[in-house]
Amino acid sequence: MATFDDAIAVRDVTLREIADLSSRQRSEVAAVVGGVNPDTGETAVGIKRSGENYGKCAEDLCAEQFGEDASKILMSPAVRPRTGVVIPVCKRCQNKYSAAQFPPGTRMEE
Length: 110
Prior knowledge:
Strand content: 15-25%
Distance between the termini: 32 Å
Largest sheet: 3 strands, antiparallel
Number of domains: 1
Order of helices and strands: HHEEHEEEH
Radius of gyration: 13 Å
Number of helices: 4
């Protein structure tokens, strides 16, 4: 059965790939989130780029790739590749996704 560790691992692979991009390309990536379907083990990554997908967060872009009920997906905390900082789950995402879909201790925007 897939776990939060799988979501974090797929996110981290993508972060390493982004680290190899040019400075300009890296600066265009605002946030990265990994996700996993715990039943199937299928993984996906949501990459939020500046100026794209208005009204959507990296969590939304990740969940959309599964093509099913997003409430089943486990997600990693979002990371800003430019700084490596973990981004708190925004209020909009808190209303859309359950806190149980994120690892225990994931920061939530207040």
